[in-house]
Amino acid sequence: MLSRSPCVYRTLGRSLSAASQASNVVTRQHLSSHFQRKCQPRLQSSSHANHVRFFKISAVHRDEVVTVNTPAFAESVTEGDVRWEKAVGDSVTEDEVVCEIETDKTSVQVPAPAAGVLEELLVPDGGKVEGGTPLFKLRKGAAAAKPAPSPSPAVEAAAPEAVTPPPPPQPSTPPTAAPAVSAVKSSSAAAAPPAPSTAGVRGENRVKMNRMRLRIAQRLKEAQNTCAMLTTFNEVDMSNIQEMRKLYKDAFLEKHNIKLGFMSAFIKAAAHALTDQPAVNAVIDDTTKEIIYRGYIDISVAVSTPKGLVVPVIRNVETMNFADIEKAINALGEKARKNELAVEDMDGGTFTISNGGVFGSLFGTPIINPPQSAILGMHGIFDRPVAVSGKVEVRPMMFMALTYDHRLVDGREAVAFLRKIKAVVEDPRMLLLDM
């Protein structure tokens, strides 16, 4: 009877439906809570990590401070003096020169490794450093590479016109920004040392000798104290070599892409003469009391620079022709002008040529470049009357001087050496005939 009652069926159905809905709600809540416990921390930590990581990378890139050390020197150089090109607070770009280190033989430029601002100079100006010594600290960053630009005078001058204020009623009105800037500039300019006066004012200016000049003085004095120096002279008629250069300079330039000069003729002639007189290319080893005869010819070419005399070396000249020599001279000259000569470029010469003629020298006695045994001095080319086949003619003439170590080279060998150079320069065809 109970099973047939519609009321009972309705009541039982409602109870089962309510229980089912409650179970579904609990199940959904449980699954949602479980999913949140498993996934939400990962999402939050991932988002937090990404945010922190991005901020740290940005900060390091912008504020990283690096310490730049002294570059390594060559084996024969132990220390140098620092000369700063920049000051603390200056902005530099990548590869911009911050300082130069003057050594005994050359100057080494130290560039900035990146754009930024100089934070600290770790060595005073003129201080001595060795390879690896910390030099300066640089705060990297593109934003710091450029200081805030100051208003230009044009903008400052245009500012009053844009505002167009009424004219001041009294002359005691405070000055505008433009006159203030001018006053600062004029006061700083007045603080600079005055230019030398021509009104009879007597004065002195003391300048410390740089390391290169000190080393040059030391080596030249050592040469005077060690070598028994003697100088012999001769003169060269430059007519034929000038005519050869006039005839072939354009074709030479077109083929080799370099100009034909007189220096290559003298270097090649010197190599020919050194082969003929090997004692001039030799050297005395004072330690072992032996004579070292070289089987190669490396000629040092003296070059005058604002910082002193440098002598880059052209190696194996005996194997070169005129074009090879001219290219080597040009390459070394370019490096000297850019102050890029390394110590290796100046080590190991066996003979030196000095050309004082480029300064208009007529006559002179060069000093040996130790540990070499001789040096050839070239001088200016001047028209002079000379006797040619019993007649007086005006020819372009040059005096040559050979200073040699008389302990090793005798007068006969020195005179024969100069005469060989004279013969080859006056008639370059002798090189072809090996005479």
Structural features, described:
This protein is 39% helix and 23% strand. The N terminus is likely disordered. Among the domains are: 71 residues, RNA polymerase II/Efflux pump adaptor protein, barrel-sandwich hybrid domain (OB fold (Dihydrolipoamide Acetyltransferase, E2P), Beta Barrel), CATH 2.40.50.100; 218 residues, Chloramphenicol acetyltransferase-like domain (Chloramphenicol Acetyltransferase, 2-Layer Sandwich), CATH 3.30.559.10. The strands form 5 sheets. It has a 6-stranded mixed sheet. The chain has a 4-stranded antiparallel sheet with strand order 1-8-6-3. The protein has a 4-stranded antiparallel sheet with strand order 5-4-2-7, with no helix packed on it. Helix 6 packs across helix 7 and helix 6 crosses helix 8. The longest helix is centred in the N-terminal third of the chain and has 58 residues. It is α+β, with helices and mostly antiparallel strands. It is found in: Mitochondrion matrix; Nucleus. GO terms for molecular function: dihydrolipoyllysine-residue succinyltransferase activity. Keywords: Acyltransferase, Lipoyl, Mitochondrion, Nucleus, Transferase, Transit peptide, Tricarboxylic acid cycle.
